[in-house]
C-alpha cells in the first residue's frame, strides 16, 4: 500500500490582503510624491529668492558707481550745452527729474568721459560721451529699474529682471544723517532697493506665497567735501 503525502493547499492573496497591500503601497507612493514635490518647491523658492537678491545687489553696484562721480565739473560748466544732452542746468544731482515728488528716480551729471567742459559730448554728439548725463528710474508698472544715458539711449533701458517693487533715494548732508532737498548740498545718497520673488503655490496653502528682499547702501558723493 502506497502512502500519499498531502500537499498544503496552494492559495493566493485573499481580497482583504490585497486591499491592505494596495492601501500601504498607495500611502508610500503618495508620501514619496508629496516629499518630492515639497523638495522641488523649496528648491524653486530658494532659486527665485537668490535671483531677487542678486538683482538688487547688481542694481546697487552700478547705481553707486554713477553716484560717486556725480557733480564732477572741473571746467565749471553751468548748463548742458551739447545737443545730445539737451538744454538744461548742470545740477550734479537732480533729485526729482520727473517732478512728481517721489524720490524713485534721479538724474546724474558728471563731466568725466573725458573731462572737457562738455556734458554728453560735442555738438551733434559725435562722438557721444557716455555716463555723463544719466537718468535712473523705477518702472513700477514693469517692476524694473531703468537706466537712460541721455547722450546715447533713445529710451530707458531695463537693467533688472521684473522683480523690483521699489527704488528709493534719500539725500543727506555731510554728516550723513540730516536730510536735505538742496541739490547743491547733497553729500550722501542712500539707495534702497526692494525686490519680490514670483508668487509660488505651496502644497499646504491655497494662497500664493512670495518673499521680499530689501537692500540698501549709503554712497558719498565724491565731489562733496
Keywords:
24% strand, 10 strands, five-stranded antiparallel sheet, single chain, three-stranded antiparallel sheet, alpha+beta, 1 helix, 225 residues, elongated, 24% helix
Walkthrough of the structure:
24% of the residues lie in helices and 24% in strands. By secondary structure, the chain is α+β, with helices and mostly antiparallel strands. It has a domain at 22-72 and 102-107 and 131-220. The strands form three sheets. Strands 1-2-3-4-5 form a five-stranded antiparallel β-sheet, covered by helices on one side. Strands 6-7-10 form a three-stranded antiparallel β-sheet, with helices on one face. The longest helix is centred in the first third of the chain and has 54 residues, at 15-68. It is elongated, with a radius of gyration of 31 Å. 24% of the residues are buried.
Amino acid at each position: 500500500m502506497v502512502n500519499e503525502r498531502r500537499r498544503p493547499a496552494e492559495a493566493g492573496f485573499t481580497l482583504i490582503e490585497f486591499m491592505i497591500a494596495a492601501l500601504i503601497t498607495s500611502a508610500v507612493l503618495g508620501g514619496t510624491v508629496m516629499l518630492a514635490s515639497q523638495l522641488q518647491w523649496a528648491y524653486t523658492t530658494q532659486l527665485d529668492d537668490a535671483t531677487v537678491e542678486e538683482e538688487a545687489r547688481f542694481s546697487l553696484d552700478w547705481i553707486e558707481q554713477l553716484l560717486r562721480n556725480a557733480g564732477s565739473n572741473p571746467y565749471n560748466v553751468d548748463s548742458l550745452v551739447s545737443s545730445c544732452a539737451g538744454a538744461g542746468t548742470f545740477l550734479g544731482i537732480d533729485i526729482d527729474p520727473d517732478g512728481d515728488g517721489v524720490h524713485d528716480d534721479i538724474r546724474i551729471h558728471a563731466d568725466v568721459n573725458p573731462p572737457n567742459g562738455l556734458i554728453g559730448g560735442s555738438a551733434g554728439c559725435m562722438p557721444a560721451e557716455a555716463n555723463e548725463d544719466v537718468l535712473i528710474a523705477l518702472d513700477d508698472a514693469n517692476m524694473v529699474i531703468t537706466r537712460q544715458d541721455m547722450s546715447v539711449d533713445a529710451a530707458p533701458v531695463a537693467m533688472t529682471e521684473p522683480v523690483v517693487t521699489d527704488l528709493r533715494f534719500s539725500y543727506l548732508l555731510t554728516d550723513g544723517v540730516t536730510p536735505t532737498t538742496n541739490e547743491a548740498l547733497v553729500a550722501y545718497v542712500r539707495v534702497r532697493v526692494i525686490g519680490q520673488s514670483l508668487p509660488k503655490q505651496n502644497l499646504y496653502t491655497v494662497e500664493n506665497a512670495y518673499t521680499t528682499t530689501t537692500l540698501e547702501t549709503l554712497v558719498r558723493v565724491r565731489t562733496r567735501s
